[in-house]
Amino acid sequence: MAGILIFAERLLFWVISLSVCYSFVFAFFSLFGRKKKYPVAVKQYRFLVLIPAYKEDKVIFSAVESILDQDYPAEKIDIVVISDGMADETNQALSEMPVLLLTINPVASSKANALNCAMEHLERKDYNVVVILDADNTVESEFISEINDAFYSGASALQTHRTAKNMDSDIAILDAVSEEINNSIFRKGHTCLGFSSALVGSGMAFEFSWFANNITKLNSAGEDKELEILLLKERIYIDYLDYVIVYDEKTRKEGAFYNQRRRWLAAQFESMFAGLRYIPQAIFRVNLDYIDKIFQWMLLPKIILLGLIVILVIITSIVSIQLSFRWWLLFFVLLTSFVFAIPGFLITKRNIRVINKLPVLFLLMFINLLRLKGANKKFIHTEKG
Fold it and tell me: Is residue 38 in a domain?
């Protein structure tokens, strides 16, 4: 019995160590410099901006207005709002704005369905770049110009820097911190080492012709994961524009956090299992970006990782101080990676105090792991207000 427990402890240590070391390496390299801006383009491309809006009456107007306020020729930007489940008053107000309003009532609401509907109903097809935003996003006036510069210089797909619009509750602060850790590890750290950036669901831009040819392949609530798989299979590099900001409204309540993470986890695991089939071919073709992506999706979520290590530190410290040393070391390495990954502006006394919420979020994430079935088949609305 003792031998089995020792084997299980060692196996668990090495499994958890992989997640910790992966985070540490990319968090460390995220420290090396801010990405240089692309040179100013001499040509202005035509943009299509798609904004799926599922019951987003409270926030949709801010998103639209921020795109209308771009320092880019208005005649070269078409905004399409895909309205699903919004009030008639909201739709009426939107129809009076210089946007293309598409009202849909699908059997199953999801961002993938909304994007497909929008592409099917487009009257013109001469766009160069398509941008996807969430209805609660707002952007700065140079947003489209900066993306235009990147595509003129040869980009085919990119992710901009999504950051918190609000930090007005403990959960919103932790959500904001989590987003920035992901930005450092899975986007900035990756591109610093030559790997593709991870996508995050909004603030994304793609070459229009590629997107139009592939949008029909999306069929889940994890459309960003599906897009990553499609891009990386074709060895299309996903750039990360750290200096182009998209403000995203963060969840304020535990229940909203639970629903959001449940959907994200379900999408991650489904994408991982679907993507495993291509791994032998990716290894044969030395497609490192694709291999890295599948491995990335196998890693434990950060909150689960931190919670497990803390529990194992406590247990091993009680059982054997000598045995606990390596768990303490792993705990220190994980915390160091978080320090590397969290921007300085988020490290404040107010934000540090919300650490007491972490045990609750750990329990919510653990419960999520047991309730993933069906969460990736429909859109689970995340209430922000």
Answer: no
* % residues pLDDT > 70 (the chain): 92
- Domain-located, residue 272: yes
**What CATH number is given to the structural domain containing 226?**
3.90.550.10
- Asked if residues 236 and 243 have their Cβ atoms less than 8 Å apart, the reply is no
Tokens of 365: 């994430």
**55-70 pLDDT, tens digit each:** 999 999 999 999 999 9
Q: What is the helix (H) or strand (E) element at residue 305, kind and residue range?
A: helix 302-319
Domain total of the chain: 1
In contact, 300 and 328? CB cutoff 8 Å? no
The pLDDT tens digits of the residues spanning 313-323 come to 999 999 888 88
Structure tokens at 163: 């950051």
Per the domain annotation, does 6 fall within a domain? no
Tokens of 264: 């994200």
- Integer-rounded Cα Rg, in Å, for the chain is 21
Question: To which residue do tokens 């459309």 refer?
Answer: 223
Structural domain contains residue 321: yes
By the 8 A CB rule, do 48 and 125 touch? no
Say how far apart CA 203 and CA 215 lie, in whole Å.
17
Domain containing residue 382: 14-31+44-385
